[in-house]
Amino acid sequence: MVMPISSELKQNFQQNLLTWFQDQKRDLPWRRTQDPYQIWVSEVMLQQTQVDQVLPYFYRFIEAFPTVEALARASLSEVLKVWEGMGYYARARNLHTAARRIVEDYGGKIPDTFKELSQLPGIGPYTVRAILSIAYNQDYPVLDGNVIRVLCRVFHIDKDPRSGGVKKELLQLAGELLPPGKASIFNQALMELGALVCRPQRPLCLLCPLRSLCQARASGDPAALPVKTPKKTLPHYHICVGIIWKDHQVLIALRPLEGLLGGLWEFPGGKLEEGESLEACVVREVREELGIEVKVDKPFMVVKHAYTHFRITLHSFHCTYLSGDPRPLGCIDWKWVSPDDLPQYAFPKGNKKILEKLLDKSGQ
Question: What stretch(es) of the chain map to CATH 3.90.79.10?
């Protein structure tokens, strides 16, 4: 259990943090509004993605879909195209589905209760607390990676915060520190401190408003917290895809909506099997995915890409269509497309690199 906090420590923590935030906070677009929709979109985008990377996508997304009603009216393909390049496409799919639910069930008003928000797709406990506290100023603590780091260091919590019991204690601690009626500014301040000052590596302790309270700094090694368990080695896969040509058009396939990269277009292909040549993999995967026969002509390019839980080497080949009528066997749709029209479709990052080089090369 987290030890009780003295009223003096709590007051100093709150006052020092809020004073610092007032002077040092970044000017971010979702901080210029109390619109729950924009705050919701920003929180979804910021999960596992840095602010500087999120900003251009946020501006683009809000410009395309300025309201929850506009997002609900859009097709999934439009949403994925605007989201393209950011990764974590399930978030975009869930945003879209949730927007339609909000319009249908709540008249376009984003719910302001824990129970109702929790029932929307893609909105987990953290996002619920973030929306309720930041947009509606309800007294809910938040616990993201930045907050966890600050709390573990200030209070010298030397247990793995990823364990359920420790995370529960940290949430309780964050709630105890929360000044009633100031959840919006306090939670943003706590997250901002972790992002700008109490950084994972080389924390800027001399600039920290909580340095006089920080037990990890007093111990001499604040960067040792939070406790980290060793990372597992990521599995690696070889993926082979075909750029299949017929009458100056290229065949693309639409991935199933569920699962990794769901709802995105791709060049047909799949995972290399043991003992299989790269070329044989392309022929087999295209046959299994679309029911057609192709001839592999020549290698095109190799792309290396890392996902959260695995890495891939993507081998692409120019191929010639031979026979068969394409059918959606391992996909949900397919199209013959002029290379110049390919940018209209949303592709995963690895495929997009192939697409970009293909356009630079002006075909074959």
Answer: 236-360
- In 73-208, the DSSP E strands lie at none
- The reported pLDDT for the residue numbered 363 is 44
Could you tell me the fold of the domain covering 7-224? Endonuclease III; domain 1 (1.10.340)
Whether 78 is catalytic: no
**What does the pLDDT look like over 253-271, one tens digit per residue?**
999 998 889 999 999 999 9
State CA 162 to chain mean position distance.
Answer: 19
Catalytic pick from 8, 43, 116, 258?
Answer: 43
- For the entire predicted model, the pTM comes to 0.90
| Residue 70: C-alpha distances to residues 83, 103, 278 (Å) | 15, 10, 44
Side chain identity, residue 220: G
54-112 per-position pLDDT tens digit: 999 999 999 999 999 999 999 999 999 999 999 899 999 999 999 999 999 999 999 99
How many of the other CB atoms lie within 10 Å of CB of 66? 13
Distance CA 110, CA 181 (A): 21
Q: Where in the chain is the domain with CATH 1.10.340.30?
A: 7-224
DSSP code string of 52-109:
HHHHHHHHHHHHH--SHHHHHHS-HHHHHHHHTTS--HHHHHHHHHHHHHHHHHHTTP
- Topology adopted by domain 236-360: Nucleoside Triphosphate Pyrophosphohydrolase (3.90.79)
DSSP state letter for 198: S
Asked whether the CA dihedral 21, 27, 29, 32 is positive or negative, the reply is positive
**Which tokens in the block code for residue 192?**
């901002």
Residue 81, both tokens = 């195209």
Q: Examine residue 256 and say whether the peptide bond preceding it is cis (omega within 30 degrees of 0).
A: no
Rounded Cα gap, residues 40 and 183, in angstroms:
16
